């Protein structure tokens, strides 16, 4: 099936490609936001699986990754504000008229919810895959201690390096310092702050009343079930449904990333949910 690379640009000079997997005229669509540090083309198998099932999929490219015109570094920095106020509105504006849901993987799921809270009229529902609030309190034991200490190290690491050297630290890629400090602030507080709208994002999410599908993977230690529950709890009224994938259902190790290689079962669950959604 056809994959279109649709170039988008923002008012602050950033450009990237929206990667669109077409299912045909009049098909419902899913705007998909990748995990932290993952280029849009890594979701080609997922986008094609959805397109075969009658759902168009437009995959956003994060600033600093893949087709993005920018790379994080000393003197090249951004945070949640730029992603929410510049990049995501540009991708949403580039979508064809029609019925669109927003969804994402890991950090992308959080941003899907935040983008919908900022532009609720553009979104018919949310798909949250292997995602949740990165609140240290939703982790247990050593994992809680580990994520807390890691988040506390980020301001020092980014101040010394001028960016976040994820490839060296074995978590994400070369990321912007402010982006990672915004993430770390949520680890400490469990809250989403005001990212330039004059109102805390938590308050905006509380007004968002949309049907929501959560996809969990049984061996995903990076996102415990409590993390997804904490994100859904921030949302307003709406039907909230979960789908759990174990090895038998997925056909692969059901961890945070492995599902991307065999996305047929998650894609089928999403397509079925979209068909049944009001």
TrEMBL record:
Residue ranges constituting the Serine aminopeptidase S33 domain according to the UniProt record: 40-244
Organism domain of life: Bacteria
Family annotation (SUPFAM superfamilies): alpha/beta-Hydrolases
A Pfam family hit: Hydrolase_4
InterPro entries named among the record's database cross-references: AB_hydrolase_fold, Hydrolase_4, UCP037442_abhydr
Protein's recorded name: Serine aminopeptidase S33 domain-containing protein
């Amino acid at each position: 099936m056809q994959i279109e690379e649709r170039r988008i640009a923002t008012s602050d000079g950033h450009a990237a490609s929206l990667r669109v997997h077409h299912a045909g005229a009049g098909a419902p669509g899913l705007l998909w936001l990748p995990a932290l540090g993952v280029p849009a083309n890594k979701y080609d198998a997922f986008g094609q699986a959805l397109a075969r099932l009658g759902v168009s999929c437009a995959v956003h490219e994060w600033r600093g990754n893949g087709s993005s015109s920018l790379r994080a570094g000393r003197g090249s920095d951004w945070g949640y504000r730029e992603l929410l106020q510049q990049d995501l509105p540009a991708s949403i504006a580039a979508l064809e008229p029609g019925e669109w849901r927003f969804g994402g993987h890991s950090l992308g799921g959080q941003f899907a919810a935040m983008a919908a809270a900022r532009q609720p009229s553009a979104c018919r529902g949310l798909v949250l895959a292997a995602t949740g609030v990165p609140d240290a309190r939703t982790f247990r034991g050593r994992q809680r201690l580990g994520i807390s200490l890691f988040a506390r190290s980020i301001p020092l690491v980014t101040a010394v390096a001028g960016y976040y050297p994820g490839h060296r630290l074995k978590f994400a890629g070369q990321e912007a310092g402010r982006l990672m400090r915004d993430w770390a602030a949520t680890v400490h507080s469990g809250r989403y702050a005001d990212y330039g709208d004059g109102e805390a994002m938590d308050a905006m999410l509380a007004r968002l009343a949309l049907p929501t599908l959560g996809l969990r993977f049984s061996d995903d230690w990076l996102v415990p079930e409590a993390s997804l529950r904490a994100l859904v709890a921030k949302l307003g009224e709406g039907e909230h449904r979960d789908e759990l994938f174990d090895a038998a259902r997925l056909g692969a190790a059901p961890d945070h990333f492995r599902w991307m290689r065999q996305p047929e079962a998650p894609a089928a669950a999403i397509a079925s949910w979209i068909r049944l959604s009001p």
